[in-house]
Amino acid sequence: MSLRYTADRTIVRCDQCPGQPILPTHREETDPRRCVRCQGEHRWLPQPHPDDHLCQVCRRECPTCQALTLNGDRCRACQGRCRTCSNPLPERPDFASGVTHVEPERRKDRRRKWNLTYFPRSWGWDQCDACQGAASAADPLRAVLAALPDKLVRACGGAVPPAVVETIHEELRWYSALQLSARIERRWWRSWAGRPLNRNADGQQDGYRPDDVAVWLLAPTDCAGRCEDGWHPAPPDQPDRDDKPCAVCNSGRVLTRPGAQDHPEDGDASPITDRSVTEAVAYRPPLGECNGNSGSCGLPVLPPHTQCPTCLDWPWCASCRRRHNPDQANACSASSWT
User: Fold this and answer.
1) Which carries the bigger pLDDT value, residue 270 or residue 297?
2) Which terminus in the chain has less CB density within 10 A, N or C?
3) How far from 105 is each of 99, 114, 115, CA to CA, in Å?
4) What is the pLDDT of residue 217?
5) Would you place residue 238 in the very low, low, confident or very high pLDDT band (cuts 50, 70, 90)?
6) What is the DSSP string of 272-330?
C-alpha cells in the first residue's frame, strides 16, 4: 500500500494490483489485502483483487447506510422511497432541528448538573405515513405486510418477495389480517427469531433462503383440522374462553414443522405451548432430591449433586448468608465479582 498526502485528504493506492489503483478510502491504516470497507479479520480478498476491493458481504450492502440490498445499490430509504411499498417518502424535517436541549437549571428532576437532551423519533422515517399506520390500516394486505419482522425484510433484500404477497392474498380468503399477524408473531418469536435465515444445502439437509422463511411464517398449518399450529384460538368476541388443542393433530405433535429437524439436540420433548392443561399441571422439572440426613432431607438438587449444600456442609460466604462450593470459588456467585 502506498500513501499520498494532498491538501484536503489522503490518497491510498493498492500496491498488489497492476497500475496501483486508488482505493475508495482515506484511512491510512487500510490493509489492501482485506475488504477496503469493513477490514474484517477473515475478509481476505481473492487474487487478483476485484475492481471495487470489496468482500461478498459488503458488495450487497448499501454504500450509504450499509443496509442489505439485492445488488449493492443504494437502498430504498437512501433513494427517498418507502422501504415497504416503494412509494416516495414525504418531506422529513432535519434530524438536527428536532434535537432539544434542556438547560440544567430548567430540569424538573432536580439533577441540575448536566444538560438534558431529547432526540426525535426517526426510526420510522424510512416508511411512508400509510405504512407507519399499516397495523391499523383498512387495507388487510398492508396490515399483514407491516407484521413481517424488519430483520426478515432486510434479509430478503429490503423488498417483500412476490410469493409472500401471493400467500397473503390466499390466506386472507380464510383468515383476517389480525389472525395472520398473530401467526407471524407467534412463529417468529417461537422459532425463527434466534435462528439463521439462510442455509446452504448439503448431503444431510435441505437449504433455504429468507424468502422461504417469510412464506413459512404465513403458510397454513399442515393439519386437516384447520388449526393454528396445533390450537384452535378462542373467538375474538368471547375473550373469556381459552384456546382448545386440536384433536386431529394431537396439539401439533404429529405435524412436521418447517425446520423442526434442524435442531435434533432439542430432543423429542414438546414445547410448553403444546402441552395440555393436564400435562402442564402434572409436569415436574428434572430435579433430584437430596438423600442426606439418612434420606429425610428431600430438598431439590441439580445433577450431578446428590445432596444439598447444607448436608454437604459447604462453607458460608463472607459477604452474605449463602453457602458456596469450595472446589469452585472462594465466595458465592452473588459476590464473586468483588
Assistant:
1) 297
2) C
3) 18, 9, 9
4) 92
5) confident
6) GGG--HHHHHH---S-EE--HHHHT---EE-TT--S-HHHHTPPBPSSSS-B--TTT-S
